[in-house]
Specification:
Blueprint lengths: L7 E8 L2 H10 L10 H6 L21 H8 L6 E10 L8 E15 L5 E12 L5 E11 L4
Antiparallel strand pairs: 1-3, 2-5, 3-4, 4-5
Length: 148
C-alpha cells in the first residue's frame, strides 16, 4: 500500500462565491458580518467578504468520489472519515480562484480496538490561489474498516 505515498488523487478548481460563503456562515452560525457584508469586509481591509473556516469542503462537490476510492483501492461500504483539519496560510475571500491538489501522505494497516484490522489513508490537499500561492492545507484521514 505504501506505493501510493505521493500519488495525486485528484485536482479540483473552484471560485469562492459570496452566496456559498453565506450558506456556510448560516450553517456554522458564524454571525460576524464580515461573511455577508461587503462594507464590513472592506472596512477591515479585504476586497471581498470572508469565507468561513470550513469553506474548502466545497471541493467535495467538484470531486469524483468513486474514482478517488477506486484509485485508493477502498471499499465505499467500509469507509468512514476519521478526521479532518485545516491550516490556513491566509483568509479566503469572495472571488478567490482555488485549485486543490490532493495527495496521499500515509497509508497504513492497524489493529482495531475490537480486533480485526483497519486501513488508514491520510490525504493532504493544498489549495493554491489565482497567484499560485498556497492559501490552505487540508488533512484528512479515511478509515476503511475490516471486513465483518
Amino acid at each position: 500500500m505504501s506505493d501510493l505515498i505521493g500519488v495525486e488523487v485528484d485536482r479540483v478548481h473552484f471560485v469562492v462565491e459570496p452566496g456559498k460563503i453565506q450558506e456556510f456562515a448560516r450553517a456554522t452560525h458564524a454571525e460576524d458580518p464580515v461573511h455577508a457584508d461587503q462594507g464590513t469586509a472592506s472596512g477591515r481591509g479585504f476586497t471581498g467578504v470572508l469565507a468561513t473556516g470550513t469553506h474548502v469542503v466545497v471541493a467535495g462537490h467538484h470531486r469524483d468520489q468513486q474514482a478517488q476510492l477506486d484509485l485508493l483501492g477502498l471499499d465505499r461500504s467500509r469507509v468512514v472519515v476519521g478526521s479532518v483539519g485545516w491550516d490556513y496560510l491566509r483568509v479566503l475571500q469572495a472571488g478567490d480562484k482555488l485549485t486543490g491538489v490532493r495527495r496521499v501522505t500515509a497509508d497504513e494497516i492497524r489493529e482495531g480496538r475490537r480486533g480485526g484490522v483497519m486501513r488508514l489513508v491520510t490525504l493532504e490537499t493544498e489549495f493554491t490561489d489565482q497567484n499560485g500561492a498556497i492559501a490552505v492545507r487540508q488533512q484528512e484521514v479515511l478509515i476503511e474498516r475490516g471486513k465483518e
